[in-house]
Amino acid sequence: MDHLPFTVDTIEVFLLIFVRVSVIIALLPIFGSTSVAPQIKVGLSLMLSTIIMSSMPLAPVLVVPPGTPVAFLVLLVVKEAAVGFAMGFTASFLFAAVQFAARLIDSEMGFGMVDLIDPMSEESVSVVGQLWVVVFTVFLLLINGHFFFIIAIQKSFAVIPLAGEHFKAGLLASQFTDMVGDLFSLGIRMSAPMYVALILTEMALGIVARTVPQLNIFFVGIPMKIAVGLGSTIIAFPMVAGLFKKIFEGLLTDIWSVLYMMV
Predict the structure, then answer these.
(1) 209-260: per-residue pLDDT in tens?
(2) Beta partners for 115?
(3) Whole-model pTM above 0.85?
(4) How far apart, in whole angstroms, are the C-alpha atoms of residue 164 and residue 210?
(5) How many CB atoms lie within 10 A of CB 192?
(6) How many domains does the chain have?
(7) CB 90 within 8 A of CB 183
């Protein structure tokens, strides 16, 4: 066995790296989409784990003495999986805000009763929500957001060494609570231009219905609200895209905050 280029300790380190990376990949936007084949996710996780392992010449070697209880090894795996889950869960808030904003617009446009299946989350989403997910996924690729996620995975091992996690439940719970609150506020900000335009259209239709009772406002209002909703979306998209970029930058800050809370 002396001629082998690796030892049992090296295998242990690689497996722990693979656990953290694979959990993060499974939850990240784009990479974690169910439309991505599991073989590709596993292959990407193995490739990133190999690169991270080779780029850590001073990586800590976990020397597990013979006779160590299996429960201790399982605990190490669970801790690495928890780090990956915290990072991936934080990153998933990005498109959760997008879908919440689109749901508000759909409910006002009249598309609230029409749902589609989002291939990224396998959940029921609105029509505009599915459109926004596709558009902002492309936009995220254009601003090289996927590279930032990969860099964050690599940097997480510099911030939190293997088996060096110290979970501060109170701080993490407070951080996630603040992020959920920000999710709703960001969703409202993203949908505000279109939502206000639709509300004003609704008020105008109400005035018309009172002044011209002979007009069938139902058949006139539905296509008008759809046209106003789509038109205002096209007009306000540059502003919404800028806000999405700021949300992504804030998301990176949240990821680092979560990581440093586990040091």
Answers:
(1) 788 777 777 777 778 888 888 888 888 888 888 888 888 888 888 888 888 8
(2) 126
(3) no
(4) 68
(5) 17
(6) 1
(7) no
> Has residue 35 been placed in a domain?
yes
Q: Are 161 and 80 in contact (CB under 8 A)?
A: no
Nearest to 29 by CA among 104, 131, 101, 136: 136
What single-letter amino acid sits at 236? A
- Identify whether 95 is part of a domain: yes
How far apart CA 58 and CA 85 sit, in angstroms, is 25
Length of the chain: 263
Residue 3 falls within a domain, yes or no? no
Residue 198's CB: how many other CB atoms inside 10 A? 23
pLDDT at 57: 58
Q: For 66-100, give the DSSP string.
A: TT--HHHHHHHHHHHHHHHHHHHHHHTHHHHHHHH
Range of the domain at 136: 8-260
SS3 content of the chain, % helix, strand, coil (to 5): 75, 0, 25
C-alpha atoms less than 13 angstroms from C-alpha of 30 in its C-beta half-sphere: 17
What pLDDT digit, counting tens, does each position of 172-213 carry? 778 888 888 888 888 888 888 888 888 888 888 888 878 877
Tell whether the model's pLDDT for residue 120 goes beyond 50: yes
Pairing of strands 115-117, 124-126: antiparallel
Q: Is residue 1 part of a domain?
A: no
| Cα–Cα distance, 117 to 122 (Å, whole number) | 6
Query: Could you tell me the two tokens for 128?
Result: 């505009």
pLDDT at 134: 82
Cβ atoms 105, 197 nearer than 8 A: no
